[in-house]
Amino acid sequence: MNPTHLEAVTQRQNLLRSRHTMPHYNAAKTHCRQGHEYTPQNTYSRRTPKGYARRECKTCRRERLSSKAAE
Question: Strand, coil or helix: what is 32?
């Protein structure tokens, strides 16, 4: 192994570089399941209790909450 080929990166960076990991797959998504685009204006970013980062579509959340309020 040649140490000059190594680069010190965080675990997150390392996971995002590999095309075979779920973090890479999820970070590459540009739209939610309903087809709304993930933009800074339309995306909530939050952490789960286990510390994982999650994106949530604001449009879908708004629609889900309004349908619950109508019940």
Answer: coil
